[in-house]
Design brief:
Strand content of chain B: under 5%
Order of helices and strands of chain B: HHEEHHHHHHHHHHHHHHHHHH
Distance between the termini of chain B: 49 Å
Strand order of the largest sheet of chain A: 1-2
Number of helices of chain B: 20
Helix content of chain B: over 70%
Radius of gyration of chain A: 22 Å
Strand content of chain A: under 5%
Order of helices and strands of chain A: HHHHHHEEHHHHHHHHHHHHHHHHH
Distance between the termini of chain A: 33 Å
Number of helices of chain A: 23
Structural class of chain B: mainly alpha
Radius of gyration of chain B: 22 Å
Oligomer: heterodimer
Number of strands of chain A: 2
Structural class of chain A: mainly alpha
Strand order of the largest sheet of chain B: 1-2
Chain lengths: 518, 510
């Protein structure tokens, strides 16, 4: 990744690489801290290994490749742990690449997500007529992009990371290539994704033109000195935030999400709705809190509108869905709204700023567990029913009580009912708004509160199908859950419950993700 | 043993039931008898803890929190695992444990369709954890978690085991309550940020009144009011209750009436009044107004009902109106009456739902017009129903009297700063409500129990009260009588705690 970045001519000229900018002409070799890079290096090694192994493994034993990918992903957790134990922040390339607590928490989250998605995919891709080896390879590439994203503190690095995580995802969305819906999914996702990247990149170029640097910390320092927001920066911020609004599927930039999730293979939909969205939020946190903190009066209200619209529109449309994946898609749009709420209120005062950052991080953590779990159940149930209709969940309780319990837990967690994880995430989100305490913040809190009630209706309607309706076709053969999927379900449900009952266990993680203080 | 229970007693009271529920999940479905035994044993052991609390409670210091535990829980928001009981919590916790034992006994061979005792009993146990926890919690977030924890099991209990219209009723119950809780949690957070960054209830009681400006208090009170008033439920937020009660299985109705409704009134007395005394004075006349509207509206609603359970549900609206009237006077006399009213209503209405459930099960209908001659076909059941009607209409000598009469009387002399005229008008209206109560209850009893059985049921074999019913019901019937004769059993527990709350309220009287 960094090789690519350093080859970009404007990056080195821009002062993106501090060494080059301050040097008296000529290229100074940047100092590379291999320990800080270890997670990326391990991941890169694993994905090359996966690609090579795939060439030599016979068609009927491809599961080896998937397992190898899973183990490799776990292996990349090791350097993250050693870096966390080591503790001190590592800054490279003039501040473009930073390994701090924030980045480690999100790297860990991305890798854990990647592992769970691999578990969910194992039998899905093996049973279908798919290219297993390439599937794992692309998934790992996308995760690598995300892991880089967590450390990026520079507009160029962020953009490169974003493309690294998006390009494989476009291909994965179209993985069921003999299915028209999957083709549609990939094409829509690709076209809108590229469009949003272009808009974002244009915004970034305006920032560079105005400030003469791409390093977020430098941009932040410059803009803070100016006091007021120059008009060009306002335009640029608008473009950057709207570009990421596509990535996190916030209304009104959400149109691709339901179609893409429905057409893509279900594990990929889970991956997009969780990891890709989280990566978008991570980038937003880095850009807004580090680079443009002093311009909060521009992006605060913008996020307010995006949050209010996403929650309300997402929830209202979700009410009408009959397909479980489409419902989860609109639910994830609404959840993006809840995650955007802290951004909208962060500018009120110093306390609110800190609470808001913790709230976003906590929400992303909880959302990952519960949403992945919900998708895992969808995959398990579809193995028997071969259907994505919510009505096909009728009477699930009578023949698959375990899956019913799990799905109920995930649904009510998404709805924010104690003692499941979602309630604490919501509570923290609400507490950010009340910490801010302004009229606009409290209005947003009330909108979020009303929305949680609306949302309960469709989450509960899944529970109602499972518990209270008869089995639609009378077929009550039990569902066999393969071990890999079972493991994914176990991990997600344990996290969902633990995060709800004893959030302190993970509270420290949210505590250390604060990038900006006043 | 005692040392352990002093520290762990309350935690056991909360978590034993949920541990029992987890155990039930591990037992295979086919092993029904064992499932029932485990559930029964869990509730009995929990009730045993309750009995120990009752015995070891220091009745000279009822205003103080006893058996407290205060441990770290969620550091990042400074919420703590703080539990403890005073004279206000104690009777309600014990009532909750007691009702749960009886519900398991009653269920023994009464499992409604689609049967499945394993899931049904697990839900009862989960409910018990939520209810006990709410009464014991001394931290707002902890309180909120338990307050919400009861929603899921009750939703499933109504939705899976309920009557024909169960899906509608269950989601309505859920949505109404959640709407209230969403506003309530906003109120809690506002308290946290505006009153010293703590969720600790005793601390907030001591400090919040001084820290908050009047306007803020009034708004926060409004948010809390929505949460609690929907749960009580007060007119005009009561519409979920008749549906939920009518569709719920018998045991669900009993738990709903006996305990769940009290979570709302308890919230007022434990949280809203003492933490926001100033706002309480501002809102009290309005609460009193809604309370008396509820009394009259509930009574008139009863007169129009055709379904036995629906009638009892509307009578709950009226009875909770008396409780809320007592609370709205903000006097120790009124609040004492209100707490007694909660216990009495829990026993009497809970028992009425048991009886209505058994009648409905025997006749296959609860439509009052189709019933008749219960005293001929099942005399014991008939007389139990008669006894309960008397208790419910507030006959002196039975428990209902001590909730209703002092509540009306307390409105004669509300707390300083409240308009005496207004509350005396309320008093008169509430008194008219008792006449109406006598009317609808006796009329219902007359139609169900007197006369000859209707043609369609003349030849039906109507079983009189049988074994498990006797075991489940006798303790409740005895308590209704005992508390009617010796009301001081409850008053001596609650008085100290209530006096403290009333003192907090009076300290800022205008």
């Amino acid at each position: 990744m960094l090789q690519i970045a350093s080859l970009l001519p404007f990056a080195s000229g821009a002062g993106g690489l501090g060494a080059a900018a301050t040097g008296s002409g000529g290229f100074t070799r940047p100092v590379i801290d291999y320990h800080a890079f270890a997670p990326e290096i391990v991941l890169t090694g694993v994905l090359v290994l996966v690609l090579l192994t795939d060439l030599f493994v016979p068609e009927d034993r491809k599961v080896i490749v998937t397992n190898l990918a899973g183990l490799g992903v776990l292996a990349s957790l090791i350097p993250i742990i050693t870096l966390a134990v080591d503790g001190h922040d590592r800054v490279m390339f003039g501040g473009a690449f930073v390994v701090d607590d924030f980045s480690l928490v999100f790297k860990g989250l991305f890798i854990a997500t990647g592992y769970i998605v691999l578990l969910m995919s194992t039998n899905y891709v093996a049973d279908g007529d798919y290219y297993e080896g390439e599937y794992s390879f692309l998934l790992l590439s996308s995760i690598l992009g995300m892991v880089v994203m967590a450390s990026s503190r520079d507009l160029i690095t962020i953009f490169v990371a974003l493309e690294m995580l998006s390009l494989p995802a476009y291909m994965l969305a179209g993985w069921r290539k003999r299915d028209l819906k999957s083709n549609e999914a990939a094409l829509k996702y690709y076209l809108l994704g590229v469009l949003s990247s272009a808009v974002m990149l244009y915004g970034m170029s305006l920032v560079f033109g105005t400030t003469g640097t791409t390093v977020l910390a430098d941009i932040g320092a410059q803009l803070a000195q100016q006091g007021t927001t120059p008009p060009l920066i306002t335009v640029a911020l608008l473009m950057i935030v709207l570009g990421f609004a596509f990535k996190v599927s916030a209304v009104p930039f959400h149109f691709w999400a339901p179609d893409t999730y429905e057409g893509a293979p279900t594990p990929v939909a889970a991956f997009l709705s969780v990891a890709s969205k989280t990566a978008g939020f991570v980038a937003l946190i880095e850009i807004l809190y580090v680079g443009f903190l002093s311009n909060n009066e521009v992006w605060g209200p913008l996020c307010w509108v995006l949050a209010a619209l996403s929650m309300t529109v997402g929830n209202l449309i979700a009410l009408r869905q009959t397909n479980i994946v489409r419902m989860l898609a609109y639910s994830s749009i609404a959840q993006a709204g809840y995650i955007l709420v802290p951004f909208a209120v962060a500018g009120a005062n110093g306390d609110a700023l800190v609470t808001a950052q913790k709230a976003s991080a906590m929400y992303l953590l909880v959302y990952t567990a519960m949403n992945l779990g919900a998708f895992a159940v969808v995959i398990a149930v579809a193995r028997k029913t071969r259907s994505g209709e919510i009505s096909s969940y009728g009477g699930l309780f009578t023949y698959a009580p375990g899956l019913t319990l799990l799905m109920s837990a995930f649904m009510f967690s998404l709805a924010g009912i104690p003692p499941l994880g979602g309630w604490f995430a919501k509570l923290f989100m609400f507490s950010a708004t009340l910490d801010a305490g302004t009229g606009a913040a409290i209005a947003l809190a009330v909108i979020a509160g009303v929305n949680s009630v609306i949302a309960l209706f469709y989450y509960a309607s899944v529970a109602r199908e499972m518990w209270m309706s008869p089995v639609p076709d009378g077929d009550v053969t039990p569902i066999r859950v393969p071990p890999a999927l079972g493991a994914a379900l176990t991990i997600t449900v344990v996290l969902t419950v633990v995060l709800g009952v004893y959030p302190s266990l993970f509270g420290r993680l949210a505590d250390v993700t604060v990038l900006a203080r006043l | 043993m005692n040392d352990i229970l002093v520290h762990w007693g309350l935690s056991l009271a909360i978590f034993l039931p949920i541990a029992g529920a987890a155990l039930l999940l591990l037992i295979p479905k086919e092993n029904e008898l064992f499932i029932k035994q485990v559930a029964l044993a869990t509730t009995i052991v929990t009730a045993g803890v309750g009995a120990w609390l009752l015995v070891n409670f220091d009745y000279d210091r009822t205003g103080k929190l006893q058996f407290s535990v205060n441990k770290e829980w969620i550091e990042i928001i400074n919420s703590r695992y703080h539990v403890g009981i005073d004279g206000l919590s104690l009777p309600l916790v014990v009532l909750s444990m007691f009702i749960c034992v009886l519900c398991v006994i009653y269920s023994w061979d009464h499992f409604p369709e689609p049967h499945n005792p394993k899931a049904f009993l697990a839900l009862i146990l989960l409910l018990e954890t939520g209810m006990n926890g709410t009464f014991i919690a001394q931290d707002l977030i902890l309180f909120f978690v338990f307050f919400e924890l009861v929603l899921l099991p009750m939703y499933f209990m109504i939705g899976v085991w309920g009557g024909a219209n169960r899906q509608y009723a269950s989601i309505k119950f859920f949505l109404f309550t959640l709407f209230g809780s969403a506003l309530m949690i906003l109120g809690f957070l506002a308290l946290y940020f505006r009153a010293g960054r703590t969720f600790d209830i005793p601390t907030l009681v001591a400090t919040a009144g001084d820290l908050l400006p009047h306007n803020t208090e009034v708004w926060i009170f409004a948010a809390l009011f929505m949460g609690f008033a929907i749960k009580v439920p007060m007119f005009p937020f009561h519409t979920w209750l008749p549906d939920a009660h009518t569709e719920a299985p018998t045991v669900g109705s009993v738990i709903l009436a006996a305990i769940l409704l009290k979570l709302g009134t308890y919230g007022f007395v434990r949280i809203a009044l003492p933490i926001l005394p100033d706002a309480a004075h501002t809102w009290a006349p309005w609460i009193g107004l809604l309370a008396v509207i509820g009394i009259i509206y509930g009574a008139l609603g009863c007169l129009a009902q055709k379904d036995l359970k629906r009638l009892i549900a509307f009578s709950s609206v009226a009875h909770m109106g008396f409780v809320m009237l007592g609370i709205s006077t903000l006097t120790s006399f009124g609040i004492n009456a209100a707490v007694f009213g909660m216990i009495a209503h829990g026993l009497i209405t809970g028992m009425l739902f048991f009886a209505a459930g058994s009648i409905g099960e025997r006749y296959g209908t609860r439509e009052i017009n189709r019933l008749g001659g219960l005293l001929i076909q099942a005399p014991k059941l008939g007389w139990i129903l008669g006894f309960l009607c008397m208790a419910s209409l507030g006959l002196p000598g039975l428990a209902g009297f001590w909730g209703e009469f002092p509540a009306i009387l307390s409105a004669f002399n509300p707390a300083a700063g409240l308009s005496v005229d207004t509350f005396r008008v309320y008093m008169v209206i509430a008194a008219i409500g008792t006449v109406l109560a006598a009317g609808y209850l006796l009329w219902m009893f007359q139609r169900v129990a007197f006369g000859a059985p209707k043609d369609e049921f003349v030849d039906a074999h109507i079983h009189d009260v049988h074994g498990p019913e006797w075991i489940a019901w006798t303790p409740m019937l005895v308590l209704i009588l005992v508390l009617g004769v010796l009301p001081s059993l409850i008053f001596k527990m609650t008085d100290g705690a209530v006096t403290d709350i009333a003192r907090t309220l009076a300290s800022i009287g205008h």
